[in-house]
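pipeline stage [seq->struct] | target=Glycerate kinase | organism=Streptacidiphilus cavernicola | residues=384
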Amino acid sequence: MTQQQVTTGHVVIAPDKFKGSLSAAEAAERIAAGVLRAAPGTDIRLLPVADGGEGTVLAALAAGYQRVELTVSGPTGEPVPAAIAVKDGTAVVEAAQASGLTLLPGGVKAPLTASSHGTGQLIAHALDLGCTRIVLGLGGVACTDGGAGMAEALGATLHDADGARLPAGGAALARLGLLDLGSIKDAFAAVEVVIASDVDNPLLGSRGAAAVYGPQKGASPEQVAALDAALTGWADAVAALTGADLRDTPGAGAAGGLGFGALALLGARMQPGIELLLELLGFDRAVRGARLVVTGEGCLDVQTLHGKAPAGVAAAAAGAGVPVAAVAGRLELDEPAWRGAGFAAAYALEQLAGPDAAEGESLTRAGELAELAGERIAEEFLRA
């Protein structure tokens, strides 16, 4: 078939990351390369996305936000490089940049002592820059400290009953005797904090931060119980000082209780991650007049249907009357399921690699296969 010019209307390419192989920006670029190979002259708008977890800052940078770099305290106290994204008084802060599991030295998990202090330092820097809106992306953190470390970085002090400063981490909160929030309330009086998260867990109990997410951070059953008890004392102390008990608020258990800390101490509100990120990235403007939207992620599965980035992109595109094609490393949804989620087509890198591909080949060849997916999309949707 000979190559032909695409008909009118641009194409928006808005994938999330393909974990373990391609960042969202890389995936967008490779899909775009394939589209252009099969349909030269296509007007393409790249808009890599995220759902509030890892990759949120990168998505904001790709959409024109300014990168601000600094060194902060990592989850176990070691200095780590991090960045926030800033534009027009809004700062995008990604907790995983400072407190992430991937930052643990040697990969050794520290469920009892890991801290959210570095996340607080990122927020403090945003305030120093004069930002009046902070978008806080949660997910992928190593700590279960209820946001206590974040609060310390913002000026709070935590002491035991003898007046000694508490060490970092969730377990130490069991010895909390005195909490002073300093000037946190005043500092955030004129600052809007929005949490980008789809987690609806409360802070405590069987669906709480320690019970549900503690084991992922290396906590044994005994440590989960200890962390939950420590977080109970933390919630009691915060409620006593603020006059509001938010431990049962949906989302308080996000990111080891960072959600609770932001809700209770920073006056934050929660918004579905992909919905908020699409708003920040200007998706509504990008999709206006589009012929097609292409989205994707590492695996299109049941979780995709519950608020993950591709489903959010599909819903937003549907609102604009634009069809959506999905590209995924693996496709675990059957056709009725992905069509029901709003996708007009779905392409899996595993399938494009061919039946004789070696195990893991779709990961090692992800960029090449994403380009092939772009070609297939152009052939199906864009060729006259």
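stage status: PASS
auto-comment: The domain at 10-47+287-382 is CATH 3.40.50.10350 (Rossmann fold). The CA atoms of residues 228 and 286 lie 44 Å apart.
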